[in-house]
Amino acid sequence: MAQTSQMTVSDEVAIEITNMNKWYGTFHVLRDIDLTVQRGERIVICGPSGSGKSTLIRCINALEEHQKGKIVVDGTVLSSDLKNIDKIRSEVGMCFQHFNLFPHLTILENCTLAPIWVRKTPKKEAEETAMHFLEKVKIPEQADKYPGQLSGGQQQRVAIARSLCMRPRIMLFDEPTSALDPEMIKEVLDTMIELAEEGMTMLCVTHEMGFARQVANRVIFMDAGQIVEQNEPEEFFNNPKSERTQLFLSQILGH
Amino acid sequence: MSDTHAQSVAFVRETEIPQSPPPALEAGAVKWVRENLFSGVFNTVLTLLALYVVVRFAIFVFPWFYNGVWEASSRKECIDILREAGKGTGACFAVLVDRWDHLVFGFKYPPEGYWRILLAFLLLLVAAAPALFSSLPRKLLMFTAFYPFLAFWLIWGGSLWLPLTILGLIIATMLVFRLISSQIPVNNRQIVSGVIGVICGAGLAYLLFIGAQELVFIANSVGTEGVISQVAYGVFWIMAIFTFVFCVPMGIFVGYAIYNSYEDGGLVSIVASLLFGYLAFVYLLSPIWMALNSIIPIELQAVASRDMGGFMLNMLLGTICVSLSIPLGILLALGRQSPMPLIKGVCVVFIEFIRGVPLITLLFVANVMLAYFLPPSSNFDLILRVIIMITLFSAAYIAEVIRGGLAALPKGQYEAADSLGLDYGQATRLIILPQALKISIPGIVNIAVGLFKDTTLISIISMFDLVGMIRGPIQNSTEWTSVYWEVYGFGALLFFVVCYSISQYSQWLERQLNTSHH
Question: Is the minimum CB–CB distance between B28 and chain A shorter than 8 Å?
Fold first, then answer.
């Protein structure tokens, strides 16, 4: 794709995961994950449900604890030390499948809360930043409404703006369009594409293969807690190597 | 599909169908009456039956009210007045007029001090307003914070300097906290926390050492006569040896934990300010307020707790206990959810124990039993003991209601707060509690109303609240010996007014906090 080549990837390492393992009780959900993400890289993670793709990206900002292996985010080693965890979380933005906006706060308050309390930004400055990002996701006029008054697509765009207000260096997306009506998927994807074009480091768990083709510079296929295959999107979609990937792709692209 | 035709399946709507009003019978009062009162034969019969009962009741009660005697000095006089006027039935409201002061203020509160109670009540409304209505300016909360000290002085009397000194020491403790947590430069923090760690560790070790000696003393006083005593003797000795062995390691452990948290400053500043506060209250409180009072005496006639009574006592207990038990309940609910086993265990045991015991038992404990456990020299105010018991009781229930609210929050809210980098305190205060408390409002109000009515239970431990006044001094007097309906009806009315107001406020608050619809 023409657009993809314009986006630059630096040599700097943003995330480095080595030999990471995770268990839920006795169930081995992530097995020997090795993954290095360069700054500016846009990675799409796909795979059947229960393959551990959400768990993988939730380990990166310590929403889930990993039991073995090493995760380094922006040079900070993720350990059980709360200070490191808070530092990483304030550098890594995350969007959820169900948006998880704070229903008791207005859109503007949703966006200014973390900058004010975590970054100690003055209220006025935080509000200006919030309005800037709300304009960027094209809903500045909703700033004084509550999340319950917005459509799903609008809510997800607010969630993206809320993360961006913390000026993260890495964005994680956990199936951001799976809970949306078909009509609203495009508006969220457009926002994400815009973000990618600005050079944000992104890890997206998604089934939007069009998005993957257009934006990603690497697609990772996971199954049963392991990385089965990773490749550039063209190669991944046109010429999948593993049998499991071929089966998966034929099922989601088959009709 | 009625618009489609067999010959032309394609269809495009060109004009919008305008909205039209519903049929007349389907709207307004007519619809309401039809749907709610006369929707069928059975409901029509019920409606007529209910109407009959209401009318009969009104016919019976109305003359009783209407003929009521308001001026008389005894029940006998009431009856005489009614008989002379030739009226068969009538209430004797004269008891309310005659004993008004006793019903409201109790029979021992000095009458020249009634204005103090009324003033405290009016100021309560002013102080409560900014806490209840968020549209009022936030600065008024300063008065709300000051109000308890003012009200204490107005109601109990004594020197104004006592509550003011307490307030001053609390502020000083908070300033110490601020100072340590922010002002001390980072490179000194290690030394400061070291010193505080050593002091606290040594203090704890010393306290444990004394406790161990106490256990030996108890063991020896139990003696070894009989099997039970022998067992108790052994148990106490084991506990004593255990404490002896562990007092120094525990001291070192706690001291080191405090020292070790120097980077954060949080634990150090909390412990240091608590230490300061404790010492200040023990050694500075009485000298300061007495000195201030001897320079500029501002005093009201002191009233003992025993002399409080009437509806005022119910209001006093209700207000204090509700405002204390909500924060305590929140802490217990959060503690019960804590991943730390010690905190969780303490909260679970406390809540389950309190919920398993009737309030009246706790009140008896407050009244009688505590005196056995406390050192003979300690003079623990009776009202304070009752306040503690009622507060603990309702806090346990409120904790369970709030726990329900916490459980009802989607996990995503915690995750979203975490992913933005908010720490536990911020996430709890800004995200979790506002939503959990909103869900819990009906439950909390339910308990607050119940608590307020339960304050009448103190009449059983011979305190003269409204019910105590009626049961005791009023009905035992020769003049009003068999007056029931009037006095209890009046008491019910007072409680109803307060409880109904609370309930209306909570419904208003729920509407205010509802952000889900357009």
Answer: no
Q: Write the CATH number for B469.
A: 1.10.3720.10
Q: Do A102 and B515 touch (CB under 8 A)?
A: no
Q: ipTM of the assembly?
A: 0.89
Domain co-membership, B314 together with B276: no
**Is the Cβ of B430 closer than 8 Å to some Cβ of chain A?**
yes
Residues B466, B361, single domain; the answer is yes
Same domain for B269 and B327 = no
Does B274 share its domain with B165?
yes
Tell me the residue type at B361: T
Cβ proximity of B152 and B165 under 8 Å = no
Pairing of strands A68-73, B158-159: unpaired
- Are A100 and B420 inside 8 Å of each other by CB? no
User: In this structure, is the dihedral angle defined by the CA atoms of residues A226, A228, A230 and A236, taken in order, positive or negative?
Assistant: negative
Residues 6+ apart with CB under 8 A from B247: B204, B205, B206, B208, B209, B212
Tokens 């499948």 — which residue? A97
Residues B337 and B373 in one domain: yes
Strand bridging mode A42-46 / A201-205: parallel
Counted across chains A and B, CB pairs separated by less than 8 A come out at 71
CA quadruple B172, B175, B181, B182: dihedral, nearest 10: -150
Q: Residue B246: inside a domain, yes or no?
A: yes
- Across the range B12-28, mean pLDDT stands at 79
Residues of chain A neighbouring B430 (CB-CB closer than 8 A): 113, 117
Chain segment B450-490, per-residue pLDDT in tens: 999 999 999 988 888 899 999 888 888 888 888 888 899 99
Print the domain residue range for B289: 161-300
User: Would you state the structure tokens that stand for residue B89, as one six-digit string?
Assistant: 């039935």
Cβ–Cβ gap B410/A118 under 8 Å = no
Q: Reply yes or no on whether the pLDDT at B267 is more than 70.
A: no
Rg (CA), chain B: 31
Asked if B418 has any chain A CB less than 8 Å from its own CB, the reply is: yes
Check: CB of residue B409 under 8 Å from CB of residue B432: yes
Query: Domain for residue B505, yes or no?
Result: yes
> Is the CB of B438 inside 8 Å of chain A's CB atoms?
yes
Angle ∠(B27,B32,B38) on CA atoms, nearest 5: 125
| Predicted pLDDT at B1 | 47
Chain A partners within 8 Å of B518 (Cβ): 149
pLDDT, average across residues A12-35: 89
Pair (B492, B395) in one structural domain: yes
Task: Please check whether residue B48 lies inside any domain of the structure.
Answer: no
Number of domains chain B is built from: 2
Nearest CA in chain A to B512: A104
Domain locations along chain A: 13-99+172-253
Residues B316 and B405 in one domain: yes
Are B351 and B492 contained in the same domain? yes
- 3-state SS assignment for residue B109: coil
Of residues B341 and A131, which shows the higher confidence score? A131
> How far is Cα B417 from Cα A86, in angstroms, rounded to an integer?
11
CA distances from B393 to A196, A202, B36, B325 (A): 57, 52, 41, 8
Work out the percent of chain A whose per-residue pLDDT is above 70.
96
Domain end (from B250, B266, B300): B300
Mean pLDDT for all residues in chain B: 85
- pLDDT over 70 percentage in chain B: 92
Among B300, B329, B355, where does a domain finish? B300
- Could you tell me the CATH superfamily of domain A13-99+172-253? P-loop containing nucleotide triphosphate hydrolases (3.40.50.300)
Contacts of B412 in chain A (CB under 8 A): 96, 98, 100
**Does B247 fall in a domain?**
yes
Asked whether B476 and B426 are in contact (CB, 8 A), the reply is no
The C-alpha of A89 sits at a distance from chain B's nearest C-alpha, in angstroms, of: 5
Rounded to two decimals, what is the model's pTM?
Answer: 0.81
Most confidently modeled range among A1-15, B138-152, B293-307, B319-333: B319-333
